[in-house]
Every structure is written in C-alpha cells, then in structure tokens.
Amino acid sequence: MAETNxxxxxxxxxxxxxxxxxxxEESEEKYICRLxxxxxxxxxxxxxxxxxxxxxxxxxxxxNEKSLSCxxxxxxxxxxxxFHIECHLxxxxxxxxxxxxxxLSLTALNGxxxxxxxxxxxxxxxxxxxxxxxxxxxxxxxxxxxxxCTWCGQNLDxxxxxxxxxxxxxxxxDPCSQNFPLPIIQKPKSHHHPLIFISRPLxxxxxxxxxxxxxxxxYACFQCxxxxxxxxxxxxxxxxxxxxxxxxxxxPFLSSTIFPSCxxxxxxxxxxxxxxxxxxxxxxxxxxxxxATHRRVWDGIELEWEPEAFDxxxxxxxxxxxxxxxxxxxxxxxxxxxxxxxxxRDTDKQCxxxxxxxxxxxxxxxxxxxxxxxxxxANLPRKLHHALHxxxxxxxxxxPRMPYIGDCFICAREFAGFKYKCTKKNCDxxxxxxxxxxxxxxxxxxxxxxxxxxxxxxxxxxxxxxxxDIHYLCGGCKVEKNILHLRCTVCEFALCYECATIxxxxxxxxxxxxxxxxxxxxxDETYWCEVCEGTLDPREWFYTCNKPNITIHCxxxxxxxxxMKPGYTFDERSLSVxxxxxxxxxxPFCNKCKARCSSSVYFKLSDETTSCxxxxxSFWVQRNLxxxxxxxxxxxxx
Length: 638
What we know:
Number of domains: 7
Radius of gyration: 31 Å
Shape: globular
C-alpha cells in the first residue's frame, strides 16, 4: 500500500512539474519588456499605486485610450518606462526576436498615397492619415517596399499600423509583432535538449506536425537536427477525442507499416513525422498531430497522468424492454410497441424525435397516445461522442420554449424535436451565445462522419477550419455560406447540413406515391412547381415522382419550418403561437407576405393571424408590441 501511494505521489509530482514549466514559460513571455534585447530580456513589474505611470504611458496604440483614472500599470526599471495594462504589448519602439539586430518603430501606412509615418499613438495615426492627401510629411514608398509583412507575408494594406526597421526594409504586421518567443527553452516537453529560437520563418516541415507554417515561430536543436514549431513543443502526450472511443498517444515516429489516410482531414499520413496513435491491439487509428489537437476536435485536457476510469453514464440505455417488441422509453410514461409501417394507417404520423413523417421503416407506436418514434431514433444513445463537437453530448427530449432557442448550431434551422446538448460550462465553440447551450438536432446527428451523398460521386467528410470566416458555395442550394459543412475528400465540392439532411423520399399530403428528390438535371423545357405554380430551374434540386409533369420546389414541400412539429405551441411575448399542419386542400394566406403558405406547416397566432414562416410571425409579434407601447405612451401623456 505504501509503495502504491509513493507511485501516485510521484506521478502527481511529475504532472505538477510539467504544468509548472509550461506556466513559467508562458509567464516569462508575457511579462518581458518589449524594449529590451531578446537575448537579455528585462522583466516588467506590476504596480497598483493608485496613479498612472509617472512619466506617462510608453504604449503606442492603446496608450492614449486609457482612462486617466487607471491606477494599475507596468514598469520596466532598467528601461525607465511605464505602460498601462496591455500597452506593453505595443510600445512606440521595440526590439523584436524576429529582428534582434535593429529596433522597430510603430508605423502607419496610407494605402492610397503609399506614405508611411512613425506614430506615437493611435490618435496621432488618425490625424496623420487624414492629412495624407495634402501633407508632404512622412516617407513615400513608391516601390511598395512595405507592401507585405517580412515574416508571414500578409498584405500590410489591411493593417492599421505595423512595425518597421528604419535601417533596413524589415517590417512586421500587428499579429506577428504580438508574438514574442523566448530566445531559448531550457526544458521543452517534447525534447531532451534545450531548444533555440530560429529568427527566420521556417520554410521546411516541422518534425512534429509535418507542416510548413511560415507565420509560426520555430525552435531547433542543432545537436539532433530537430526543428519544431513553438505550438508543437507542448503537444500533449495522451488525449481523448470524441471521434474515437479510445485514448490516443503522441508518437514521434511510426513503424514502416502502411497506414490509411488521417480519419479527420482524409489526407495521407507521413510516418516521418509525429502522429497520435491508438495503442489498443486491435485498433490501427492514426491521426495527424495538428488534426488531433485542433480546438474543435480536442477538449484541451491532458490525460498523461490521469487513470482511465469507466464512465457510468456511457451505458445508460434510452429504453427498457418490457416484452416482445415492446419498450419503456426514458422520457415517455406509456409503453411503446414496434410496428410495421402501413401506408394507409400511418401516413399522417410523425416521429417525436426527428419530427419527420413515419415512412416505410419500422417504428414504435405508443399504446395510449400519439407518441411515435422511428426505430433508429428510439435507439439513439442518451450520451453521445460525436465528431461535430469536442465535448460529450446528452439527449434532450424537451421541446424549446421558443423556436429560435431550439435552432440547431450546425444547420441553423428551427427545430421542435429531440436534440443533443453540451452540458459543459463556458463552451465557446462556433461563437455560441452564452445564454444558450451548444445543441444539434437529431437530423444532423444521424449523418455519419464520412459518407457518399447521392448528389456527389465522392465521399464527403466533416472538415475542420481555423475560423468561422471561411466561405464556401454549397453544391445543393447554390448559396455562399460560412457555417459548418461537409466537404469532398477528392475535389472542392461542399454541401451544407441543411441540404445534406433533406430526405431523398417523402410523402406529400394525400399522394400515395412518395416524392423523390432530384439533384438537378439538364433540360431545355420549362418546369413548373405544383405548389406555388412558379417556374422551377431544373438545374436546382427539386422533388418529383413517377407521375408525369409533377415537379415541386424543395422549399415548397420541405421549407425551413418543416422541423416544427404540428401541435407544438409556444408563447412569444403576449401572443400564443401554434404550429398547424398544412394538409388541407386550400392553403391559407399569410397575413404578412400576402402569399399562400406553401410549406408543410404554418403558424396560427392567438389573435387569429396566420403566418407562413418564423420571420412573418415575428413581424406580427413586434407590431403588437409596438402598438402596446404606443397605447401605454398615450395613456401616460393624457
């Protein structure tokens, strides 16, 4: 027992030492005086004296924007300068590790006149920029010497300010100037020798990730001929990602065994570089190090010194079998019985989970009320690890109080069925509104990580991106979007989740023959929509059947509100709104857009107003609110 306790203490000590080293390196880098030489850095000290820096703030961009009552500041005693909070990151002059031989000055560039100015603060930059057309001050740059950042190559025309060397033509954009790597890392996590900073962009592959990242600071061990990005130095040893059931271990070199492509980016795995590998005997899962540690794949938790414990919530079944083909579902009070689909009896029934109509598949039918579940939906686990999120997701059967609260974060549709939610606090994935938890509807969850869609000949997968600013043209709706999507493993084809989850077959109203989704065709004929009676572009997706001349717009039979289950009622401020099935022979008119409601459902407000969509009923709710405010205003002034 004593030996076991000693081993546990030793593991804890090693873990704490590892964390302490990383924290010290980060702290040193953060509190270095930018005016000192990188080889002999000075440390700035924090003061809370109740006064501003005695000699004023030496900050370049943010110095004059600080309140005069700001009492907390930094000071470098050796350089005899003071800074407001965070202003030390952008001083008027600095000696940067990327260019240690000469000092750099804060500079503004006017993109039209190509005149550059040395500025002391942001207000000075604005004033001189306004005088650029008439003033002869500044330095003219006709040869576009300062067109791009010397380190990363970014165009400086898009930067408000940058740093330049007045002796040579070296210049740094703002993001690169904020990087201030240490000259040497004495005890790196990934190597047994100290690593020395390379004051040049690394244009060869990193030995850890195998990628060429020009903008990333790099370090080298010349004794071992080892070069590595700063980011890759602290790669975790053991991690767990939601795309694989086992833990993954960091492996510097792989054996000569031929591995398949990376299951995250679907590109080739090069055994010369470090990867993450599953060590289970019957598993050959190998992932690129950058893919495995991406912020949308890994939750950021290092598991090297953590014991692998069994999670009891993993095996919680969604139902209990109570008889032959009969179950007790976890969120319903009655028993459900498995039945075969009957086209006459079951046409109007809808699944409570995915809200789609019960079709040719087997389904569970409540013995006492109108509760129905597809067999596939009934078997969805209560806890799920999915590639769309880096935290575990939990099944939530409770409908949202309002439709926009129930929006899926992947396809952005209103949804009134079951959804999977993240229960982690402060989950900031996809720029989530902190008031709402990350949630995905069942339709998006049911799509595999990699599959072949009927609209494209190659497999599609879930790509990972560095930001939400990457736009793409959806191959289905032909709309440019920037939300999460599916991308082809071979070509540049992309498909949004809203299009990817449209059912390829569905029953419409009283038709016994199901409609089939056509993914566009080449034709010189004029197509007409059976619902809205408008023209239909045959190159776009549309629904059709084996009856001649039957073509329908996708939005007319399966619009954005198609996942709002009929009978769902919610309150919107002072009004009650009910979702009505649009299955009558005469389609109602929308009071807002004055057109007939063409979707499978429409909205009936408590004031007898009819709306065809969420946006239309929101207009009436806002109008009623404005009228109430006006009545209150008039009554208070009478």
